Amino acid sequence: xxxxxxxxxxxxxxxxxxxxxxxAALLTGAGRFAADLPRPPGCLHAAFARAAEASGVLRxxxxxxxxxxxxxxxxxxGADCVPAGEPAVNRFFPDLxxxxxxxxxxxxxxxxxxxxxxxxxxxxxxxxxxxxxxxxELEPLDPEATEPAFAGQWRSGDAEAAFAAAAxxxxxxxxxxxxxxxxxxxxxxxxxxxxxxxxxxHLSTQTPHRALADLAAILGLDPAAIRVVAGDVGGSFGxxxxxxxxxxxxxxxxxxxxxxxxxxxxxxxxxLTATQGRGxxxxxxxxxxxxxxxxxxxxxxxxxxxxxxxxxxxxxGRNAARCLPxxxxxxxxxxxxxxxxxxxxxxxxxxxxxxxxAAMLMERLMEAAGRATxxxxxxxxxxxxxxxxxxxxxxxxxxxxxxxxxxxxLARVLEMGAGLREACAARRARGxxxxxxxxxxVEPCGQGWESARLTLAPDGRIxxxxxxxxxxxxxxTAYAQIVADALRVADAEVEVLHGDTATTPPGIGxxxxxxxxxxxxxxxQAAAALEAKALPVAARLLQSPxxxxxxxxxxxAVAGAPGRxxxxxxxxxxxxxxxxxxxxxxxxxxxxxxxGAVLALVAIEAETGIATVExxxxxxxxxxxxxxxxxxxxxxxxxxxxVGEALLERVAYDEAGQLLSGSFMDYAMPRADDAPLETRxxxxxxxxxxxxxxxxxxxxxxxxxxxxxxxVVNAVADALAARGVTLDSLxxxxxxxxxxxxxxxxxSE
Length: 749
Ligand code: SMO
Fold this sequence. Notes:
Elements: H1 2-10, H2 23-27, E1 44-50, E2 56-62, H3 64-67, E3 72-77, E4 108-109, E5 115-121, H4 124-133, E6 135-140, E7 148-156, H5 159-164, E8 168-175, E9 178-179, E10 188-193, E11 199-203, H6 208-219, E12 226-229, H7 245-257, E13 261-264, H8 267-273, E14 277-278, E15 281-288, E16 294-306, H9 315-322, E17 332-341, H10 355-373, H11 376-384, E18 393-394, E19 400-401, H12 406-416, H13 420-429, E20 433-445, E21 449-456, E22 462-466, H14 475-487, E23 494-497, H15 515-542, E24 549-552, E25 555-558, E26 561-567, H16 568-574, E27 581-587, E28 592-604, E29 611-621, H17 628-647, E30 678-682, H18 703-721, E31 729-731, H19 736-745
Parallel strand pairs: 1-13, 8-31, 11-12, 16-17, 22-23, 29-30
Antiparallel strand pairs: 1-5, 2-4, 2-6, 3-5, 7-17, 8-15, 9-14, 10-11, 10-13, 15-16, 18-19, 20-28, 21-22, 21-27, 24-25, 25-26, 28-29
Helix pairs in contact: 9-10, 10-11, 10-18, 14-15, 15-16, 17-18
The structure holds dioxosulfidomolybdenum(VI) ion.
């Protein structure tokens, strides 16, 4: 409720641009990533022999040559490493098949790069030599197309009648490229068997508690026998939200040999076998009445799955469907979704996870509608955006948009970009190819539950353990601010623990833009529980009845006698044998929806097709902002990934399923000089607090990937329109080459 939101802000840590407490270590090379950990005595290095074909029958895996090499200690194939069970898969669709998870391939190969054997050696080089000496007999099969693995449907209202009666019908089609999440730190694992059974595994993961559950299932172990530790993690972006076969094989080999095993993926291995994102194909049509108001949306979404299902395989497709029709009032929808297996890397969540696809389709349709009706880009959106008084709003896909003022966001971003349209017109008159692109978006964030445990340390400091995790977002800094306000202490008095399943309560982890809102909600509830336990102790200390006590800076005070105070250190000293501790599991009632508006100015060099984002204006509403500097960092990082998605990045395969983009020589990651020449981030005049958490915070981590690609694509399309080129059906990314070709053929692809 708003009273709680107000209270949370009163104390003054929430809302401040506190510097990241993580940075001193990370910026001076003192971070501890999995590969930095000292290797325990007897530690072996792992390397993988991988399938050379995308599809085939695995006749034999011959390990003898590998085993004969100096330094090689052991080697195992799929026949040795039989999993006891499967990792969990999020079963959003009842017809979703089994996950097909194998640490090492057996009998069949379903994708190039699939691990066939693990080689363990005294050095990393010896392990690599061993992996190269593994002889696999693989009988290639044609990588065949497969039947739909699952299907979903969203229908509401009478779309058919609306299309029959429409004054205008516009269409758009988008083929999203597959994207490599490409975290700075490739996957890594260090598995250390425990005396008496079980193991500790240091893992580069965003979901340590899920990894623990998955490893327990695969290894056939009691979960209590496994400890997963995520130390510093160098980015994740969705690709570290599910266990990969290599990590399972490393854990299995460590147990089998009774020796520690370490593995660090190379960039090429990351490109070849880590989960990828996007790749969806969407087609949509929008029916509008004579006044330019949308009456129905039809969409078909094809979602690629790769060769196996990671935990969140169905999420991008589901999100793309359920986020339609975005911030717009569209009474009827008919949306069909189908997922297909193929012989490529597995598909999963990647920063945005289906939300960017929904925004791209709606924003392309809005552009087309603006043209067809003659209303233009701005007026067509004004006429169709849900007004703030319509919220909370149940969308025709069954979601509840909790809060936000979409027309105000549009007005604000247009105000920020005042004069750009005129400047564009003037440059066009001089023959320049420039375009403006608008995009609005909604972003579901923060659902489900998260946990927290607060402990009052003997010195009065607060230890805050969270089930959420961190991969560079500055979570420790932000969580300390939240706890500091809740307990009326300085944020420096709060130490945040995360990532280690032995010292943190069970949690979901860092994904779905949930950690601040939901993880923060859990911390606030745990803080309230700690206060309740501390109150009688403080009352004893102050020789007053608990009812006479009031919260005061640093602890409690007697009402009417502000000098009579009991601080957290005194409370801790009063309970030396039994430190106060409180745990909470916060279940979010419903989902929060962030929202925003982006305006992009793109210039195209006609001779080369090079598109430059000259200016990007962006207003993002995330409700309560815990730390504006961290929020800005998230926006800027996501924004650059959004530019990469629109203009640069594509995982490419040939017909035979061989990866063509196995390194950064071939995969165009956005670099500093691809960033917009000028970026202006604006705040909404009246942020809309989340309706689902006491903190009121919505997510910000994925926002840049959601609105920015659509705005940039709309800007490119706007620039090309001046030359009569239309992009009603487009394939991403809009590379220099594809723009040049479009300009020189006078039409879309
Ligand atoms: S890739 Mo996000 O965790 O929906």
